[in-house]
Every structure is written in C-alpha cells, then in structure tokens.
Amino acid sequence: MADTEHVALAELGVGDAPAGLLLSTEAHWNQNEADWRFFLSRGIVFGVRDGKQLVATATLLPYSAGNAWISMVLVTAAWRRRGIATRLVDACLNAAAKLGLTTWLDATPAGAGVYGPLGFTPTLQLRRLRLQVPAKGGTPRPLSACTPGDFIVRDQQAMGFDRSLLLTEFAGRSRSRVVSSGDAVALVRDGRTARQIGPLLAESHQSALGLVDAIVRSGPGGAIAVAGIATAIVIGLWFAFYLLVFLPRSA
C-alpha cells in the first residue's frame, strides 16, 4: 500500500457536485446531481483531489437526536487500496465526535474491511434489486397517496431516529411521490438511471412486494431500483447500493 499520509483532505462545497457525480457514476451508483448537491449543502463532505480531479469522497450527514450517517464513501479505481477511504471515514468520525454525534453507515462487502477496524459492528444485511422488465398479468393493488408528514412518522418509528431532513428533501422534488397500499408505504423518486423505491415500510414482506408491484405497474416505464433489508420491517434505505448496515461504533 502506497503511503498516503501526504495526501491532503479537503472539505468540499456545492460546486463539487458534478465531480462527485462522476465518482458515483464510475461506481455504477444511482445517485443524481441533486443528491450530491443536497449532501454537499446539508452535510460535511470530505474529498481528495489529484490536481483538479476529485478522486475520493466521504460524507457525514447529521440527523436529529445526536445521530449522523456516513455515506458516499467513494474512491476512483486508480486510487483504491491506498488507505484513502479509511482516512476519509476517520475525518467524518472526528467531525462527528466534535459535534457529539453517534455515527451510522452502510457499505458494500468490499467496504466492510474498512469499517470493522474502526469499531463498527454489522447489524443488517441488505439486498439490491434492479428490475428491467416488469412482470405482466394479474391486477395490481391500488395505490393511495401518503403525506410526507405521515411517512416521516412511520420512518422514525421504524428506524428509531428522525430522518425528516433527508425525507423532506427527497419527497419535495418535482417527480417524487409517497404512495401506500394496505400497510405498506414507500417513497418513489428519480435516480440517475432508474426510478428509486425506498425507503419502503411494511408490516410483512408480502405487503412490501405487493406495493413494489403496484408501483412498477403504475408507470412510467423504465428500470426500477429497490433496496431491501432481509429480515426487518423497513425495506429500503435510500440509494439501493449497499449490502450491509453498521451499528454505531463503540464509544
């Protein structure tokens, strides 16, 4: 592993959204530029540059009640395996500590090796699903509108803390909608290459899958991205890219 102690970390701003989008696109993630602008304006985002090129990022998004979420940990291919992701996550953890925040994060299996040594413990396994061609036949369940306020209440009950900052942003976009069917409710919004379903909250896997089916059949056509937690009531976190959710690291 090359020495990276000399590599400078910088705090990024909203003007870095296009460069961040290049990184997440390289990783085949579904974030769009609006997502990046939100994180850069409402969170604390650290990055590494190679000249003018942004080559790595990590984001700390503060929530209420002393919680924060680390995400957008990205390193361009040529700069991986140099310890840069660890340094960026450390920067987020230090920023969280100064603010008195408990940190959570989600990660791919490849990222698990970075977070375990930093004191995080895995707690949930997620599944990433992408639908290109929806099934045909049968009658889908009817969809009803749900207010963002009611959705935020259910999300807080499921997650244990308030994520209204993020939910309000995503639900307020022009092509977003919050829909329900029976006991299941979900946020649907545009991603970079696919419509995004998530978070999805339901009392059972059956009702969750019924809502996904109804959303897909309601249109418009195109690819659908869905994230799912294997065993919990909450199905979907935000971006449908992650396979592990980590508990806050030990004090």
Describe it for me?
Strands 1, 2, 3, 4, 5, 6, 7, 8, 9, 10, 11, 12 and 13 form a 13-stranded mixed β-sheet that branches. The protein has two domains: 9-123, Gcn5-related N-acetyltransferase (GNAT) (Aminopeptidase, 3-Layer(aba) Sandwich); 128-235, Aminopeptidase, CATH 3.40.630.90. The chain is globular, with a radius of gyration of 18 Å. The protein is built from seven helices and 13 strands. The protein is α+β, with helices and mostly antiparallel strands and 251 residues long.
Give the topology, please.
Elements lengths: L8 E3 L5 H10 L6 H10 L1 E7 L2 E10 L4 E9 L8 H16 L2 E6 L1 H7 L5 E11 L12 E2 L2 H12 L4 H8 L5 E5 L2 E7 L4 E7 L3 H14 L5 E6 L4 E2 L8 E4 L4
Parallel strand pairs: 4-5, 10-11
Antiparallel strand pairs: 1-2, 2-3, 3-4, 5-13, 6-11, 6-13, 7-8, 8-9, 9-10, 10-12
Helix pairs in contact: 1-2, 5-6
> Secondary-structure element sequence?
EHHEEEHEHEEHHEEEHEEE
Largest sheet: 13 strands, mixed
CATH superfamily of the largest domain: Gcn5-related N-acetyltransferase (GNAT)
> Would you give the CATH topology of the largest domain?
Aminopeptidase
Secondary structure tally, helices: 7
Counting structural domains, the number is 2
Helix content: 25-40%
Percentage of residues in DSSP E strands: 25-35%
Shape: globular
> What class would the helix/strand composition place it in?
alpha+beta
Query: From the 3D coordinates, which CATH architecture of the largest domain would you assign?
Result: 3-Layer(aba) Sandwich
**Low-pLDDT residue intervals, each spanning 5 or more residues:** 228-251
In round numbers, the mean pLDDT is: 82
- Report how far apart the termini are: 29 Å
CATH class of the largest domain: Alpha Beta
